Amino acid sequence: MIRKGTAVWNGSGKEGNGHVSTQSGVLSKVQYSYNSRFENGIGTNPEELVAAAHAGCFTMKLSFVLGAAGFTPESLETICEISFEGGVLVKSHLVVKGKVPGISKEQFDACVKDAEANCPISKVLNTAISSEGTLL
User: Fold this and answer.
1) Report field, pTM of the whole predicted structure over 0.85
2) What is the pLDDT of residues 29-42, one digit of tens each?
3) CB 122 within 8 Å of CB 80
4) Domains, the chain, ranges and CATH?
């Protein structure tokens, strides 16, 4: 399986601008710029997209890990915080809240750590990765 994303950039790094698109069309020419990346300008940025990808991948992996352990989650919600310092992604922190009938906190925490270590995005990121889980 191959998935594609496309970026187009026009101009210099600080004054230029660009857009990103995904093969599925969910993102289609979404604007990004120096201001949306390093300030609070309108548009997206690569770090925000990595955070969304990591949250999505981790949450789906956690669902699979829970299923393998005999539990079916009612709901899982993950926030991913990407730390970008000095031009480098230095940390990805995953905060998950889960409603999982019949599971103990210890079992849930073990599943969270398994998903943290084994989701494909965690494996591709060259940064510190941490997680914390809360059962609802």
Assistant:
1) yes
2) 999 999 999 988 89
3) no
4) 5-38 (no CATH), 46-135 (3.30.300.20)
